[in-house]
Amino acid sequence: MAATGKDQDGAADALALLRAEHEQVSRMFAQCANLRGLEDAEETIAELVDDLCDALIIHTMLEEELFYPALRAAFGDDELIDDAELEHAGARELISQLEAMYPGDEHFDATLAVLAEEFAHHVAQEETEMFEGARAAGLDLVELGHRLALRRAQLDDDMAAPPTSFDGAEPHDGRRTPPRAPD
Questions:
Q1: Strand, coil or helix: 12
Q2: pLDDT per position as a tens digit, 133-175
Q3: Which of 17, 61, 80, 143 is deepest in the core (most CB within 10 A)?
Q4: Residues near 50 by Cβ (< 8 Å), separated by ≥ 6?
Q5: How far apart are CA 93 and CA 118, in angstroms?
Q6: Which domains, and CATH codes, for the chain?
């Protein structure tokens, strides 16, 4: 395995894939912070937060479906993994709250800031304790990386699929829209 986290075929190992996702989400949080307070940025922030929430949902699913079970089997630190899963539950709750808000709403900025802080804490713990544990346990990180990449492609396809209609109602893409001014 090269120092880049890739095997001879150029396939990224699990830790390199997860680290790249952490960096992508961190950049998205930074973009949101840079746009805050700018005039006429609400629509851009709303779109960015939608993308950020989608990325976090996919990321947590990958970790919970593949990475954490592999760690549990390999080194058995259930407490560390249980804590990470609880952090994911908290993130899902904050994502749910954000999806019901629009930039400019009373608690939007605070909710986004809390999610960013919790994400940064989660990443710091994961990239030290969990990643080191995965290496020390001798996990096949390349094989796990292949599985993560395949599942990510499936989830990306699912997220890109057009929404289905429900009870004859027009399908909605799930993107938030700004509140309408009163008539």
A1: strand
A2: 999 999 999 999 999 999 999 999 888 877 666 565 555 555 5
A3: 17
A4: 99, 174, 175, 176
A5: 12
A6: 14-158 (1.20.120.520)
